[in-house]
């Protein structure tokens, strides 16, 4: 795996949640090449045998390692700033490399052997941290020594002293645990002229023994992979694993068999994890040896992710160079994944499930191609490129039967419609910009080729070459303006809007509200942060955020909006820590809308329904619905407001239910995926539905609008609870759209509904000769575009209300 991205959350988010974040290279894995053999920080101190501090390296691989661009980094035991010594030259297989650092004041101490590199770092004699970093910035090896070292491989090495160094154990073993890999002993520095093949506590003497030959059983790539999600040889040493190198990364290389077996369930590709940049090149025929391992992204915090089979602690023998690469499997032509079945049946843990069938389950289909060269022809972007990570959800240009929108998105219309053919096109093996940025519907014409990998809930096509991007010309939609007799009500998640955001974000959001939404009369905004944004300083008021947005709307040619909201209690409503996101109503008063201010609403006071029939009103406006209910723990509380439009009362409830964080990913280890987060949303929907019931009990024709980011689908139980049944049932407007138009959000190539507007029957009575009682529109301005102002599309309903004298 490229190992360039780290888990940003302690959970995998299967359908909707936060975007992926940048990952560091794979750390904490045993080095197969250069290791730290000795470290001595007592140089020149009282009683020290040597006059200078030093770090000694050793090349445990079977090939020369080029040190160009490498460096040694040193931190104090708990420090956050590193000092560095630049390295150059190379280390031959089985050789040492001596790095001299600062001299001490004990001039009677002996000089070091001639160093291979010289720096001026004053190392601690008893506790510190040393790392060897290659030219790509990957940590090749790390030593934390002394009990106070805040970073180490598993546990710190024992504390050395003025007379003792930390020395790697005999044979330079690297188990990724500093505490067991190092012992304290008298320093015995070696340089590049020292005896080869000698390393560790017995490595000071002579001898010219080269690294030992690889051990283990002979195996083919297909035998290593097996017809399963985990290797049948896991934990075993293997050798003579033959293949041609098909791709390389900063941490290893992929090989593929040139003599494949006849079983399509066994992959013919394999990743060899060298930790640093490999010496093997694309087109090299090699035999590899190492330990068969399973790498799980996220480690113990990513238990819902699948593992990837790899060789660790490898040795590589290059047999020839310039060999032709195996032909890629053309997905969508040569082999077609099950279209809408991630995993057949309900096996639980697929790694221990008894059946593995690539013809029935897409997760098995992709696993059977793990590490192999694959090709997509005329790949279609079904989600926008995430420009921060160079990732684009795509499907093949052929044989896709999933529900498609008019804009070529794939619509997630049910739990049985997971778009199982999608892959994440990933540019991590190519120079930046090699894979053009795409919007939904754009096509990578021609062949896109790479190796198939897995990372954090998705199979990735790590491109080695990409097709030519042909734009579909996707345009941001614009809705119709409300007519004289209509009131327009919208919802818009503006994605953690804070005063610290650039003015361009405010201007572009304002442009959407004015230009694309045609300045609705009422807008429920979600994810408005407080005045200090994500700074966790106790600030809860959001006046600055709202004032800045309203000013931007006015500058964009829009009306003068007013706003109402309730400040939350600090750090109780979830979202970005310190941001205190909340819902906010903004409304315009130039078209007959006014807000009914009723004092008494605050963060912890529950708003109730007062009166009946025409006298029905809220006890507080704006107010919150049942804010102390456990359903709202660490989540946004609903904001309810009473409006008036030309004498008609409107009760508007703005929501932002809890996210899907913690749910199993669609392509995860556990099948069928558990949606653990929906329990809280069901409770939240029940609380809101109860409030709606109290309004409709007081006035069966009350004009009620429930809207916002519900973080759940139009076909979900959450939506069912809000809709209710019988005479008081609400209409969930996304359900009124054709199936291929039901989406407000795109998550990893699945276009889906997360944002809703629901209306009561009192808003569905058409006026004679005036057309429908309402017109509803999801306005696609963000979710399908690589350049976004928010990750959600806004939506608006234009309501035709009866005059007050007819009500």
TrEMBL record:
Residues 1-29 form the signal peptide. Pfam families: Exo_endo_phos_3, LTD. It comes from the Bacteria. Residues 25-147 form the LTD domain. One of its GO terms (molecular function) is catalytic activity. The keyword tRNA-binding does not apply. Residues 186-219, 341-360 are annotated as: Disordered. This is LTD domain-containing protein. It comes from Branchiibius hedensis.
